[in-house]
Amino acid sequence: MSTPIIDLTELFGLSGRGDAPGRLLGKLETANHTGSVKDRPVERMLRDPRVAGAHTLVEATGGNTGISLAVAGSMLGKRVIVTMSRKMSPGKVRQMEEAGAEVILCPLVGLDSPANFINVARQLGEAEGHWYVDQFNNPANVEAHYETTGPELLEQVRDLDAFVAGAGTGGTLTGAGRALKERNPGIDVVLADPAGSTLGPHLRGEETEPAPYLVEGIGGDFLPPLLDFGVLDTAYQVDDAEAAAHLRTLAAAAIDVGSSSGTTVGAALAYLRDHPGATVCALLADSGDRYAETWRNQAWLTDHGL
Ligand SMILES: Cc1ncc(COP(=O)(O)O)c(C=O)c1O
Predict the structure, then answer these.
(1) N or C: which end of the chain has fewer CB within 10 A?
(2) Is the CB of 179 under 6 A from ligand 1?
(3) The CATH fold of domain 49-132
(4) Which of 218, 237, 264, when mutated, tests ligand 1's pocket best, judged by the most ligand atoms within 8 Å of its CB?
(5) What is the tens place of the pLDDT at every residue in 175-209?
C-alpha cells in the first residue's frame, strides 16, 4: 500500500503568492498500520533470519519504531523490550505497553553515557535469546525506504523538485534520497532539522554544540551512522515555535500529525522561498494521537511558550 499524498498548497497560502507560487505536498505516513513511517523499516528489519532464533526483540526508539515493533512482536509471539529517552511523549509509552511491550525510560544523556537509551538497548540485546534490532545501524532500515518510500514518491509526484524529511536514524533520507537521485539527480533531498540539532550545521561544515528542543523523533546530538550526508543537498532548521504554528494550521484542517511534521513543513516552506515555483513534498511522519499530553495539549504548549 502506498501512503497518500495530500496537497497543502492552499492551506499554507501559497497559491496567491505571485507568478510562481510553488506546490507544497505532504506524504501522509500516518496511513501506515501503526500510524507512522516506521512500519516500513520495522517490516523489513523483521525479515532478518535472526528473528526466528530470538524470543525477545530489543530496540532503542524515539517511540514510533517501538510502537510498530510492539505490534509486530505481539503478532509474532515475541517479547519486545524498548528503550526510549524520557523526553518523549507519554502517549508513545502507552501505545507500546498496550501492544504488550516493556518500556525502559532512560535519561536524556549523550551517547558517551552508558545510561543513554541506545547503549541500554545494545547491552540488553546481548542477553541469550535477545536480538537487538538496531535501527541506527541496520542496513534493512535504509533498504526499506530505498524500495518503498522513494519509488512511491516517484510514482505519485511526477514533477517532484524536492523531498523534505527529518533524520532520526537517517534511514528515510538516505534510502528514499538514493532512490530519487538515481531516477532524477535533479531532485533535491532536503534535511528538515530542529533548531538545536547538530545535523543541519554539520551539513554546512559547522560543528556546533547541541541545544535542547521539544520536537520528537528527528535531529540529534550525534551523527547517525546510516545518514549519508552525500545524498543531502541542503538543510533548513526550524524552531519549536514555528513547528507548533504549522501544526496548528494542519490541525485546523483536520490533518492530525505529530511534532516533526511541523518541522518538515517549516523546512519545505523555507525551501519554497528559495526556489519559487518548485514542487516540494514533506514527510508527515506520524500521527498526532501519540502527543495527547504534549503537542496536542494547550496547557503543555502554553507551559513551553509555544
Ligand atoms: C517522528 C519521526 N520519526 C522518524 C523520522 C525519520 O526517521 P529516520 O531518519 O529514522 O528514518 C521522521 C522523519 O521526518 C520523523 O518525523
Answers:
(1) N
(2) no
(3) Rossmann fold (3.40.50)
(4) 218
(5) 999 999 999 999 999 999 999 999 999 999 999 99
